[in-house]
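This part of the workshop introduces the protein records we will be handling. To make this concrete, we reproduce a full record directly below.
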Amino acid sequence: MIGIISAMHEEIDALLSAMNITSVIEKGQRKYFRGKLFKTDVVLVFSRWGKTASATTVTQMINDHNLSEVIFTGVAGSIIQNINIGDIIVGKHLYQHDMNASPHLPQFEIPLLDRSYFETHYKNRLKLKQAAENFITDYHSFITPDEKKEFNIEDPQIVISDIASGDQFINKDEQFDHIKELLPSVGCVEMEGAAVAQVCYEYQIPFSIIRTISDKADDNAHINFQHFSKEIASKYALGILKYYLAEM
């Protein structure tokens, strides 16, 4: 069974609509939807925003279900000039940009785990990239020209990149510049991925993450996230996972 997590309900709307739901389990004020998605057994949940909420959610999911892997999907803000709205990030290394136990440990290192980042599952990462490429080929089956125009999406690209997570909404140039200076390999920022990656690492569950770029994570990051998530990111997740699960 595959666990699928998003931080906002809007990000999983399209997946829920396509899913054959067989049961709903409510724990910790979350609803875990079990059933089949494209003929694959899945459990689907939205975690709410932030590292604590997402870590709590994935821990409950792992303990209650026999998971073969976990996939996180949702939106993120680009911190690289050539990564634009509508682009797809397939995560490689996940950093917690607000982790700092110095002087006892180097900045970003997770106490007791002796590592500064968590790497996604190599084979699943490549499979997600291929699924994203298939989705782009079939793009207008999921995203209309009017939707593309509304959100200023040009020609979506797929990038394998590092991701930084933290309990901050990054929308100030000074935040943007600080993260970019300290973590130059990072392509986007969000609020959950590295926490979920840490839990999966500790439970030895393969982890993958895909993020749809919704903004540039700077002073212009004023997009309506709920609207973008429902109309764009949710459909990206549906299209990518359709092709990903077809290979199961």
About this structure: The chain has seven helices and ten strands. The chain has one domain: 2-246. Helices lie at 13-18, 51-64, 122-137, 145-150, 173-182, 193-203, 225-246.
